[in-house]
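Form P-L/3: holo structure prediction, ligand 6-O-phosphono-beta-D-fructofuranose.
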Amino acid sequence: MAKKVTKIGVLTSGGDSPGMNAAIRAVVRTGIYYGLEVYGIMRGYQGMIDNDIVPMNSKSVANIIQRGGTILKTARSKEFLTPEGRKKAYDNLKAIGIDGLVIIGGDGSFRGADVFSREYDIPCIGLPGTIDKDIAGTDFTIGFDTAVNTAVEAIDKIRDTADSHDRLFVIEVMGRDAGYIALHSGIATGAEHILIPERKTDIEELIDSLQEKGRRNKLVNLVVVAEGDGFGGADEVAKIVKERIPASDTRVCILGHIQRGGMPTCFDRLIASRMGYSAVECLLEGRDNVMVGIVNNAMEYTLLEKAVKSKQTIGDEWLKIVKILAS
Ligand code: F6P
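OUTPUT (holo model):
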């Protein structure tokens, strides 16, 4: 029989993502609703090690649901990767009496939580907070929808210039080694080509297709490249295109960190609120070492280890859609 939790800690770790604040708010307010003491751990696992832990109340999370970034700040802690670092963190939590943790972050954060919850008697619940959507056991991650919408807005603007100058743009989006931001933003902006790490990029096929479009006088071409694409980023792709099709007026645009910030969309606020609420319920029910996800609009719980290892997959039909619609 699991011990009843009384004091819980919440932290954000890894890259920030829009909607993390909405998730923190949900954890804090649900915890208070159930009579728990809630603590905010600053700068992710590093704050656990440095004992940078603050009590939170309902007011500490007022007026943050609409804000990007994370009020708890975030970090990628190297010290937490060591047994000594994790022991320090555990001792600090124990001294306060924290007996449950909610970790909002991506795959690196879950790996840390997985190890910690196996080593020590503090249950850990993960919430998928990453713009990359590179986690299994959930249809969406907190921040992905906002990041894609940011990318869509930017690519729409680039299209205006591409159209006015008859130019070819190679646009790089984030996603680390996952292609979801590229795929979703590329389809939504009508990109002619989308290059993602999940499929081997055939550069010859890309050149042939661009040349063929040139012969048909299709002058606006948007190529969206995921930063993790095996061929290389937008600069690499543009270099080859310029060499092989010298007549093309080619430009590169790397969207970069603008995709990480900004006001979360309604969708991200909603899933963050549902997941944050559910994380506290999980701790109260005695669950440990799982990630809260949403699959087919219902809550689902996946072992942290599995969420990190399995990844989501991109079916061939997605790429068929790109090909047909961009012809
Ligand atoms: O994981 C989120 C992410 O924005 C990735 O898409 C990107 O590869 C990485 O973080 C960038 O990390 P940093 O902000 O440390 O440069």
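COMMENT: The longest strand covers residues 7-12.
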